[in-house]
Amino acid sequence: MKKLFFTLTALALMCSACGPDPINPDTPSTGDSSNQEEPAALTEFVSTQPTNRIAVIEEFTGNQCVYCPDGHAIANTLVQQNPGKVIPINIHFGAFAAKYTTPNGNTIGNYFEPTGFPIGMINRHAFTGSQVLYDRGSWASYVNQIISEPSCVNVAAYHTIDQETREMQIEVEGYYTANADLETNRLNVFLLQDSVIGPQTGGANFNPSQVMPNGQYCHMHMFRKSLASSAWGDTIFSTTQGSVFRKSYTYKVPTSISSVAADLNNMHVVVMVSRNRKDIITACNSERR
Question: Which of 205-243 are b and which e, b meaning 16 or more Cβ less than 10 Å from the residue's Cβ?
Answer without folding.
Answer: ebbeebbeeeeebbbbbbbbbbbbbebbbbbbbbbeebb
